User: Which sequence fits this backbone?
């Protein structure tokens, strides 16, 4: 069990640029989640996947945000035309859903910290 | 609406003293409750979870939590804190054993005095 891996750990970019983050879940986990955490706050849910299917998106996920999990393994989160308010820690988590109970809790990665200049 | 309230933003305790962090939740269905801990610049580590059964649950690092349905609370406790317990603690609620989105509280920052 190598844990949830996120890349990069830090990203600094200018306002208006596009950024993409990657998350590699724990290998046997079929569910993958994205959260955003701003300073002094708890994580806020953005979206989650069951294998490659995106099952729920938060209203926080504006049109500038897109998430994919094309082969049901790693996932990417892209932010287009970044704004100052996008500065945050972006956390990825994964879990194994059995479909009939006994679900494992979400395990989190160390996050990607995004700073918009 | 689903929500989690952690009334204490910052708590300071002396090393060796007991600790209780408060958590109140609002959830329309069967709540599945979690406590996570976060060190600076790191992700979240699961301390413990409550799904069903015994309302007193044991976790890692000597932590325990008690689920009280009548009070909609899930308070975290530790009998004797260590300097390494200094961190941010988050309570969270979710459905389907946490297989869907989690709703987090604002967090409680714990400082340990030597």
Assistant:
């Amino acid at each position: 069990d190598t844990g949830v891996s996120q890349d990069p750990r830090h990203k600094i970019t200018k306002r208006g640029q596009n950024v993409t983050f990657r998350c590699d879940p724990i290998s046997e986990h079929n569910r993958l989640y994205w959260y955003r955490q701003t300073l002094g706050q708890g994580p806020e849910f953005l979206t989650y996947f069951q294998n490659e299917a995106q099952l729920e998106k938060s209203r926080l996920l504006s049109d500038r945000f897109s998430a994919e999990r094309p082969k049901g393994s790693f996932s990417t989160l892209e932010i287009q035309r970044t704004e100052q308010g996008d500065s945050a820690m972006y956390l990825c988590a994964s879990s194994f859903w059995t479909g009939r109970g006994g679900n494992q809790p979400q395990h989190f990665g160390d996050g990607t910290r995004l700073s918009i200049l | 609406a689903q929500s989690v309230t952690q009334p204490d933003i910052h708590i300071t305790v002396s090393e060796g003293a007991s600790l209780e962090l408060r958590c109140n939740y609002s959830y329309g269905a069967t709540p599945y409750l979690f406590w996570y801990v976060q060190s600076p610049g790191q992700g979240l580590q699961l301390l413990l979870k409550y799904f069903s059964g015994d309302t007193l649950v044991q976790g890692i690092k000597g932590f325990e939590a008690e689920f009280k349905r009548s009070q909609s609370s899930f308070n975290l406790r530790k009998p004797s804190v260590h300097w390494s317990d200094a961190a941010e603690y988050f309570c969270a609620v979710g459905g389907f054993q946490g297989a869907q989105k989690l709703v987090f509280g604002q967090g409680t920052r714990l400082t340990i005095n030597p």
